[in-house]
């Protein structure tokens, strides 16, 4: 009995004693003082030692985009930080930032823990951009079994200025959603029943932010149009993995619902040159490309535009008629949808094959594929296949622009 | 040669933690890509082992060893089975202190360590140091020397491996051997080299 008592109290005393020593030492070594963070020499923010820079900036309404939610993979939260308070780049940042960027004091805000005063430089229009814009959903429709078009009415002072290719950040509130209650278009009900997606459930205990590209046409001014792909778990993992947090919430939105956004942001834009343009897309990579093509044609460009778009079957193909009409109206625009796996019932007479193969076959007949500009957006596998194809065609990397959605 | 000096050499070279006893291999391999990080790890190992082994020695003899409580009229009490938990607690605390010190005074080394510093808490070589101390009945002075010696041995080994690996960065290795594969081969070769020390010690 004494032995048990002694042994227990001994270990408890030892552990508690060590903890007390640690807490005391931490007080002495890492004083909990206020630090000053100066942004663009205009804004002075107060932070605590050990805070993450991204959180400090977001709390002050500086709208640094953070598509990966601060895990250090998307690289969108790049800022210039000077002053000893920023510390040394962390191991996670070495993979994302080039040596040159590191020399220029560029850091990932989400990986920077403050340890002293510092000065931060961000593009001027980010200041205040982080304030969430309240907006209302005005239309939703299903484009494909897993893709929904959501149109949002922006408040009058926010609707105007964005460049085609930009994205906005959507802030999903805490929610729970039972997929059995989702309204699906009868045209796609069969796909849903076969895949068993109706048994899924999604929930999120805290607000989550994700980036979504704008798919606006010129006539959508004052609105934001999104193509949302529902991120269902990989086939066979439906029981163990939850569906995507924000895309599920977006899928459940109905007309009249409130939604909070920030932005727009983006660096994926049409270059002001005279080169021919080739757009290659897949899945919801459609969104930014659609905005770019409409904007270019709407401005009456004389540059030639080709659009290759890959989908599995007819059910996954959307906006096809819209692009057919555009091709009829504009002699300099051509539209090539390619199906990799058309269903027997599709009666597909168009091009078949993977989009990178279709692109290669077509560009091999082009007199100078290396003189065109390429704009790619889609799933990471598609992007890497297309990059290899373009490499073989001898296209310099500087003429290829792409967005792989943080993949 | 005095006994303590001999113990130091013995623990650093003959009973080298990674190369003779194959202890602490995970950090040994993971942090040997760059010489700077390897030297940092070596210094940390010397510090942590040099502190934890004598500290654990004090705790063990004063509180846990059989007969430690005879002054209280409990000569039969043997709490040596608590040694493992107590040692791990002490090591964890020392690593935390070290992390705070580095964070404050050497942020560059702190950043280079990344996630590896907290991993030292569960590094087997460090725990093994304290367990050997019990098994071999070292005195306090011997424990301190043994801790410093083992740490030094680890530091020398990891710095050597890192130096070789940096050189090999320009070698045209077969694809399958690049990275960790080659590191294992190197570790094996170095360990063969270190077994020569055992021969020397045996011959004496
Ligand atoms: C610049 C940019 C533009 C973008 N534009 C668009 C766009 O126009 N349209 C669009 O649809 N998307 C777009 N995205 C992608 C979008 O931001 C989200 O990444 C995407 O919607 C998934 O977010 P989520 O919250 O729904 O899923 P998450 O919750 O992030 O989950 C992602 C996936 O992981 C799976 N998963 C969940 N938990 C686990 C686990 N423990 N282990 C393994 N897997 C797990 C989920 O099932 C899901 O399939 C864009 C991204 C960027 C960076
Ligand atoms: S938010 Fe920092 S890298 Fe994505």
Automatic annotation (TrEMBL), chain A:
Q: Which GO terms describe its molecular function?
A: 2 iron, 2 sulfur cluster binding; metal ion binding; oxidoreductase activity, acting on NAD(P)H, quinone or similar compound as acceptor
- Record-annotated 2Fe-2S ferredoxin-type domain positions: 31-126
Q: What is its EC number?
A: 7.2.1.1
Q: Which SUPFAM superfamilies match?
A: 2Fe-2S ferredoxin-like, Ferredoxin reductase-like, C-terminal NADP-linked domain, Riboflavin synthase domain-like
This enzyme catalyses: a ubiquinone + n Na(+)(in) + NADH + H(+) = a ubiquinol + n Na(+)(out) + NAD(+)
Compartments, as annotated in UniProt:
Cell inner membrane
Q: What class of enzyme is it?
A: translocase
**Which NCBIfam families does this one have?**
nqrF
Return the similarity comment: Belongs to the NqrF family.
Tell me what this protein is called. Na(+)-translocating NADH-quinone reductase subunit F
Q: What is the protein's species of origin? A: Donghicola tyrosinivorans
Automatic annotation (TrEMBL), chain B:
Q: Which GO terms describe its molecular function?
A: oxidoreductase activity, acting on NAD(P)H, quinone or similar compound as acceptor
Swiss-Prot/TrEMBL keywords: Cell inner membrane, Cell membrane, Ion transport, Membrane, NAD, Nitrogen fixation, Sodium, Sodium transport, Translocase, Transmembrane, Transmembrane helix, Transport, Ubiquinone
Q: Where in the cell is it found?
A: Endomembrane system
Q: Where are the transmembrane segments?
A: 6-31, 38-59, 79-98, 110-134, 140-164, 176-198
UniProt entry tagged with the keyword Transmembrane: yes
Tree of life domain: Bacteria
> How is this protein positioned relative to the membrane?
Multi-pass membrane protein
Extract one GO cellular component term from the record: endomembrane system
Pfam family of the protein (one): Rnf-Nqr
- GO BP term, example: sodium ion transport
Q: Provide the protein name.
A: Na+-transporting NADH:ubiquinone oxidoreductase subunit E
Please give the organism.
Answer: Donghicola tyrosinivorans
Which lineage do the record's taxonomy fields give for this organism? Bacteria, Pseudomonadati, Pseudomonadota, Alphaproteobacteria, Rhodobacterales
């Amino acid at each position: 009995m004494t032995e048990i008592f002694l042994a227990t109290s001994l270990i408890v005393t030892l552990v508690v004693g060590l903890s007390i020593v640690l807490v005391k030492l931490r007080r002495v070594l890492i004083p909990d003082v206020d630090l000053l963070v100066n942004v663009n020499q205009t804004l002075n923010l107060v932070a605590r030692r050990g805070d993450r820079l991204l959180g400090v900036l977001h709390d002050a309404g500086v709208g640094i985009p953070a598509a990966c939610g601060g895990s250090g993979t998307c690289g969108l939260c790049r800022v210039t930080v000077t002053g000893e308070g920023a510390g040394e780049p962390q191991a996670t940042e070495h993979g994302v930032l080039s040596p040159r960027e590191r020399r220029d004091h560029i850091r990932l805000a989400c990986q920077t823990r403050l340890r002293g005063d510092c000065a931060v430089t961000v593009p001027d229009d980010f200041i205040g951009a982080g304030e969430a814009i309240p907006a209302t959903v005005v239309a939703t429709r299903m484009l494909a079994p897993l893709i929904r078009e959501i149109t949002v009415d922006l408040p009058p002072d926010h609707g105007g200025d964005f460049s085609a290719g930009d994205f906005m950040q959507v802030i999903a509130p805490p929610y729970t959603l039972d997929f059995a209650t989702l309204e699906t278009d009868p045209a796609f009900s069969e796909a849903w029943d076969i895949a068993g997606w109706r048994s899924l459930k999604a929930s999120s205990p805290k607000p989550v932010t994700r980036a979504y590209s704008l798919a606006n046409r010129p006539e959508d001014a004052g609105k934001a149009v999104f193509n949302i792909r529902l991120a269902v778990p990989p086939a066979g993992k439906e029981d163990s993995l939850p569906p995507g947090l924000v895309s599920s919430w977006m899928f459940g939105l109905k007309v009249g619902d409130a939604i909070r956004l920030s932005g727009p942001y983006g660096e994926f834009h049409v270059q002001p040159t005279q080169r021919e343009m080739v757009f290659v897309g897949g899945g919801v990579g459609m969104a930014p490309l659609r905005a770019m093509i409409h904007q270019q044609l709407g401005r009456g460009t004389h540059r030639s535009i080709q659009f290759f778009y890959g989908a599995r079957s007819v059910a996954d193909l959307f906006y096809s008629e819209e692009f057919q009409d555009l091709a009829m109206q504009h002699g300099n625009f051509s539209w090539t949808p390619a199906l990799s796996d058309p269903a027997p019932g599709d009666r597909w007479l168009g091009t078949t094959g993977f989009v990178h193969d279709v692109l290669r076959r077509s560009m091999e007949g082009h007199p100078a594929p290396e003189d065109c500009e390429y704009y790619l957006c889609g799933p990471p596998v598609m992007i890497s296949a297309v990059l290899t194809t373009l490499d073989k065609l001898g296209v310099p990397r500087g003429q290829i622009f792409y967005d792989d959605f943080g993949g | 040669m005095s006994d303590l000096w001999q113990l130091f050499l013995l623990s650093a070279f003959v009973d080298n933690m990674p190369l003779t006893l194959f202890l602490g291999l995970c950090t040994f391999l993971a942090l040997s890509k760059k010489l700077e990080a390897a030297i940092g790890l070596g210094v940390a190992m010397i510090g942590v082992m040099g502190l934890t082994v004598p500290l654990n020695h004090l705790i063990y003899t004063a509180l846990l060893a059989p007969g430690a409580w005879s002054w209280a009229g409990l000569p039969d009490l043997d709490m040596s089975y608590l040694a493992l938990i107590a040692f791990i607690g002490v090591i964890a605390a020392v690593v935390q202190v070290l992390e705070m010190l580095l964070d404050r005074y050497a942020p560059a080394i702190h950043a280079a360590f990344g996630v590896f510093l907290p991993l030292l808490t569960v590094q087997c070589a460090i725990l093994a140091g304290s367990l050997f101390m019990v098994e071999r009945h070292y005195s306090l002075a011997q424990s301190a020397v043994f801790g410093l010696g083992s740490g030094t041995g680890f530091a020398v080994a990891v710095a050597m491996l890192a130096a070789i690996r940096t050189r090999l960065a320009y070698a045209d290795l077969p694809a399958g051997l690049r990275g960790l594969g080659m590191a294992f081969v190197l570790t094996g070769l170095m360990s063969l080299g270190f077994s020569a020390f055992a021969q020397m010690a045996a011959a004496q």
